[in-house]
Design brief:
With 397 residues, the chain is an alpha+beta fold. Helices cover 32% and strands 26% of the residues. The protein has 3 domains: 7-234, Jelly Rolls (Sandwich); 237-298; 317-393, Outer Surface Protein A, domain 3 (Alpha-Beta Complex). The two termini are 49 Å apart. The structure holds fe (ii) ion (FE2). Residues 149, 151, 155, 216 line the site of fe (ii) ion (FE2).
Length: 397
Amino acid sequence: MTINKTFSEILAPISEAEFFDAYYDKKPLHIPGDPGKFPNLMDFDILSRILGLNSIWTADTLGLMLDNTQVPREKYCDPGSRDGRSVLIPNAEKVGGFLQAGASLVAIDIDTLTPEISALADTLEDSLSAKAQANLYFSSQRRQAFASHFDTHDVYAFHTVGEKVWRIYENREPHPIRHAAFKVPPEQAKARRGGVLMDVTMKPGDLLYIPRGQYHDALASDDFAMHIAMGVTGIIGYDLVSALLERTMHDERFRVNFPRAALGRGALKTRIETLGAAIAEIAASDSFIDQFSQYQQRFRNNRMKLSLPVPVAEEVLRVKTPGLAVKSVQGRPVLASASGAMPIPPGKEKIAAWIVAQDRFTAHQAASALSEFDLLTVNETINDFRKMGLVAGAGAS
Ligand SMILES: [Fe+2]
């Protein structure tokens, strides 16, 4: 059974209040746990099982890192096709070979692959009003998979197997986002990361929070180490600008031409000030705030959750044309009405006769009454009647 942990249980023994006051978006936090804190979150059996879901993995979702460098995808994948498109599909034997050689495995977007990871992602999203995305990192030797870097989202790293030493550096890039403008090449990262802020040895059940932009790296200190990194991205001011962009398009004031350049800087400044005030007015309006609040509430990754079985709402059908009857004309079965007759495909006359004798019926009732026929044939006949307009939903005219 999946144990859904609340955000305070995830953070325990640190309280939520303490986390938000002292750490959230401020500084890293290591919360030691015990191996039972996040049951069934990830182990070798679970990893083997999800890696066996062959149909989901491609070179984009399954990567290998060797000594700070990405292993070229062609080296561990075979060409294949999915949904009619050419893709590179990881080959288990080749992947195993690289793991044997000390590579680290990175599995991207695993947050829907087990109920436990999915529940954890949901809790983070609900508590942080943000989108959570899970990646798995598995190293098979004491090697460094990633050079010092920062992430463009907050990281909540859940350690599950073995031990790994993380080094957190003092410096933090000021709220970087995923855009080329914020890329820092590895050689520059070394110069910008600053001194060591903390060394953290992560053990199963431990959680490490690293705010967006904080430099870090990690080195497996066991032969096998595994963690799940939840990358959490919230709404930022830039999203407000995007929402306003959409809103201003529907406002005529923003569709009027600007004063011509010949009218001078003064005219330009006046227009900019007028529109600036209009933006401020829109942003402060109740309707915009309501709209943005709805956007915030919907700001989640959509994980499909169906509780099966879904009760079937059976449609009640009725025969639309009165006076229909199954007759035999020159030895062949026909469906006769006041306006004429049409042939019935051989073998379906009994089904047709049953349908026309009904006042109202459901597909389920037809299947029970005509149990000597297979379900497919019964449904097919009902559908043929529908297409010919002889049968319709009881609610339809
Ligand atoms: Fe990272």
